[in-house]
Design goal:
The chain is 51% helix and 7% strand. It is mainly alpha-helical and 138 residues long. The protein is built from eight helices and two strands; from the N terminus they run H-H-H-H-H-E-E-H-H-H. The protein has a two-stranded antiparallel sheet. It has a single domain (15-132), classed as Winged helix-like DNA-binding domain superfamily/Winged helix DNA-binding domain (Arc Repressor Mutant, subunit A). The longest helix is centred in the middle third of the chain and has 13 residues, at 58-70. This is ArsR family transcriptional regulator. It comes from Haloferax namakaokahaiae.
Length: 138
């Protein structure tokens, strides 16, 4: 079943909790959400998401990010590519307000445990620089 077919909103326009959690019934999608929630700026680049989730192939990462965005769980924003250094990230992701509200209501994906976990990960210089890079406006 296509995950896009599973997503709907409740009568008040909020994400449907049962269908949303069904979308997240996939370990790689859960890990991506955990990475976004745990990021120091709450807006990791694709490069950072991949670094923290090395077992996810590039193709699957693209597919999962697209699914999560289409379902209304995450937003993305891009920097202008002009003026970026080679290899510098330009696309960033964050939770939507509706996703954060739903997760808070359900008591899942609280930021503190995920932030603590990501702080313990040994980071390359490239990833440390990426964490401190300016983010685009969402």
């Amino acid at each position: 079943m296509d995950p896009f077919d599973q997503v709907s909103h409740t009568e008040d326009g909020q994400l449907d909790p049962f269908k949303t959690m069904g979308i997240l019934d996939h370990v790689e999608r859960k890990n991506i959400i955990g990475t976004i929630v745990g990021h120091p700026k709450d807006t990791p680049s694709r490069k950072e998401i991949k670094y923290y989730n090395p077992s996810i192939s590039e193709a699957n990462l693209s597919r999962h990010l697209a699914t999560l965005e289409e379902c209304g769980l995450i937003d993305s924003a891009s920097k202008q590519r002009e003026g970026l250094n080679r290899g510098e990230s330009y696309r960033y992701y964050r939770l939507t307000g509706q996703a954060r509200e739903l997760f808070d209501r359900l008591g899942v994906f609280g930021p503190v445990p995920y932030k603590n976990l990501l702080e313990q990960v040994e980071k390359s210089e490239e990833i440390r620089a990426a964490e401190h890079a300016d983010r685009p406006t969402f």
